[in-house]
Design goal:
The protein is 55% helix and 6% strand. The relative contact order is 0.12.
């Protein structure tokens, strides 16, 4: 009975772990499909407004920009999930344990500074920033670039979707601000269940609301992480107000995004090797990465 219950719990935990990824994927592709429909068909426009439809060239440019952003979102998200930021397979230096190192009793190993244990991932993560519930994985040393690039293109794509859905809001509010229009914008599910609107009107209103809410949420995450990046901090270090690894704007960009920080955000396929190993980091005011005390003593001898 106990083994059966533990087996059910493991399956439920596995499903719950992948549920946010599935929901995010459905939302991203639903928004993309709705915006593509607006570009190609002009669904919410009135008959007399359709006389000013975009030309084929403008439609092609809009679709090209839209699918460029979608490709970057999905590719960066895929590489973020495939790139493990944990200490698995990493040689941590054996005896080279110095100031700032801690012993993790769960992983049964010494871990370097800026590394901490994640109880969701069940492993220590190099330069751990936080555990992302939307992806079900930690943001750390190796996958931070893909996380930030994914946020950037999600923000750009949602901004584009909000602008495109302005026509939807115009059509809903064309007769003025009424109880019906407000409820359709704020609680479209209730309007659908009560039979006040059609499934088509509900779909447009729901996706338009999702675009606005998603844009505000992603914008807050993006600008917060850009703020941390420029200060050379992780989220954990921001809580403690520590800034010992601040190397200036360009230095921080290089250490977080790689040597080609000025290009790598355009496409995840652009190689941008990180200048460190995730174990030793240059401290503000030092000329070389901070090493452990035993290493420095051996070098002096």
């Amino acid at each position: 009975m106990t083994s059966f219950a533990s087996g059910v719990y493991c399956r439920v935990e596995r499903v719950c772990r992948h549920l946010p990824i599935v929901l995010n994927t459905v939302l991203v592709f639903s928004i993309t499909a709705e915006v593509s429909y607006l570009v190609l068909v002009g669904a919410p426009l009135e008959a007399e407004q359709k006389k000013t439809q975009w030309s084929t060239v403008w439609k092609s440019l809009h679709l090209l920009a839209q699918y460029f952003m979608l490709g970057n979102i999905t590719w960066n998200a895929s590489l973020f999930l495939k790139t493990s930021p944990s200490i698995r397979g990493v040689f941590l230096g054996g005896e080279a344990v110095g100031q700032g190192w801690r012993y993790c009793y769960t992983c049964e190993t010494h871990t370097p500074p800026r590394c901490s244990h994640c109880y969701d991932c069940k492993v220590c993560v190099l330069r751990r920033d936080h555990h992302c519930v939307f992806f079900g994985q930690c943001v750390g040393f190796r996958n931070y670039r893909y996380f930030l690039s994914c946020l950037l293109f999600m923000w750009a794509g949602l901004l584009y979707a909000v602008v495109m859905n302005a026509e939807v809001f115009i059509v809903i509010l064309k007769e003025g601000v009424s109880l019906h229009s407000v409820l359709l914008l704020v609680m479209p599910w209730i309007m659908l269940v009560s039979g006040q609107v059609s499934a088509r009107a509900f779909a447009f209103a729901f996706i338009a609301d999702t675009c606005v809410v998603g844009f505000l949420l992603v914008a807050s995450f993006l600008f917060f992480h850009i703020f941390l990046l420029l200060r050379g901090q992780t989220t954990r270090e921001w809580y403690s107000k520590r800034r010992p690894y601040n190397l200036g704007v360009v230095g921080n960009l290089r250490h977080y995004l790689g040597l080609r920080w000025y290009l790598c955000w355009l496409c995840p396929l652009i190689p941008s090797p990180l200048p460190g190993d995730g174990i030793y980091f240059q401290v503000t005011g030092s000329l070389e990465p901070a090493r452990s005390l035993p290493c420095m003593l051996r070098r002096q001898l």
